[in-house]
Amino acid sequence: MNCDSAQHDILLDQAGELSTAKSHELQKHLMECPACRRYKISTDSVVDLARHALPNSGPSPESRERIMAAARRHAAGRPTLFFNYFTTSRFLAAAAGFIIVAAVSCLLVGTHRQNDTALRVSEMSTIVAMVTEEGTVAIETTSHGSTQPDLRVLARQILRVEGLLVEEVVEEEEITPDEDAPPRDLQSHSTFDSQPAECA
Amino acid sequence: MESVAVGECDEVLLASYRKGNTEALSILVDRYQNRLFSFIINMAGRPDEADEIFQEVWFRAIDKIDTYREKNFLAWLTRIAHNLVIDRWRGKKVVVSLDATEDEGGLDLSEKLSGPELTPAEQAESNDMVKRILDTVAALPVEQREVFLLRAKADLSFKEIAVIQGVSINTALARMQYSLTKLRQLLVEENQPQ
Q: Which domains occur in chain B, in start order?
């Protein structure tokens, strides 16, 4: 340790900011260096002297009272802990988050509705075409979305009421079962076959 | 409202005040008023101005207390005080002299130093010594004086002082060393035989 760094360390040590290892190193240097020893003694004395010499009074009682009055007003101005938590910045952040979520939700719902409507229109057009043009019913089992089974049931009910229901159903293409695949849960499929009561 | 003990740490008192307990803030004001006010008055010079700044520091602290997330409450208060003092200096362009403190009548510094055992001659000598120390501190460049006051009066660490001044810890140490050298020179002159 040289004298320059020792003088910095003397100040840091006085402020309690020196690590134990550094403090030991400083003590060792002070034992060996009379100049730094003198520097430390004079530094401590000067700080001590100035500490006592400089004005050391408190604020006026009126000043303190005004501060406490402001504190009481501030404390009374807080509606609840909930609103206390929601400071302006937090409120703005929460509001921005809500708007973003709402906007994304609207977009998603809008897209879904468009798709759903298109699907339904397509389904109904197919059914109407089958009924009006061909006079027979040939309902294809396809692999569309989840709304299809309900539509088919509805279509069957309409056709049955109209007397147009023919028990001719073009079944799905033969599917070679994958022998490695696990057995399917038949109850989970919403096809005509899974609703025998409706077919009768 | 639950009461808080005077010896509670700052965090507990702040949390209690945030729940609406003004007694907790009163304890904090009592705890730090002397160190904070000493720093302010030594920077500002005049007791009435120091009183104004002291109030303003607490008004601002109360206003921002909900967003306070730091470790050292006194360092935070001192930083507010530092900014207010700097703002006033910039606005008024005044040269602050600590001589004014005695003339204002609010502070009898000589009484603080001179004990009852001193003879009139010793007391006069002590008064003179106090005045010369105050003059020397007042004559320091603002940054150095602030470091000296923050360390000697507010008892802040160099790390905290560096944050308040927005400088490196080595700069804060160098400023302290410079101010100590000036004061040391004064003491050497005082003790030289006439």
A: 1-93 (1.10.1740.10)
Dihedral, CA of residue B54, residue B56, residue B60 and residue B62, to nearest 10: 70
The answer to ipTM > 0.90 is: no
Q: How many CB atoms lie under 10 A from the CB of residue A2?
A: 9
- Say if pTM beats, i.e. exceeds, 0.90: no
Closest residue of chain A to B188, computed from CA coordinates: A42
In a domain, A11, yes or no: yes
User: Cα distance from A5 to chain B (closest Cα, Å)?
Assistant: 10
A18/A115 same-domain check? no
Residue B43 CB: number of other CB atoms within 10 A? 25
Residue range of the domain that includes A19: 3-52
Size of interface A-B (CB pairs under 8 A): 123
Task: Determine the Cα–Cα distance for residues A103 and A109; give it in Å rounded to an integer.
Answer: 10
Q: What is the pLDDT of residues A188-198, one digit of tens each?
A: 444 444 343 34
Interface residues from chain A to B (CB-CB < 8 Å) = 7-8, 11-12, 15-17, 42-43, 45-47, 49-60, 63-64, 66-68, 70-72, 74-76, 78, 81, 84, 87
Low-confidence ranges of chain A (pLDDT < 70): 56, 78-90, 117, 119, 121, 123-200
Q: Percentage of residues in chain B with pLDDT exceeding 70?
A: 78
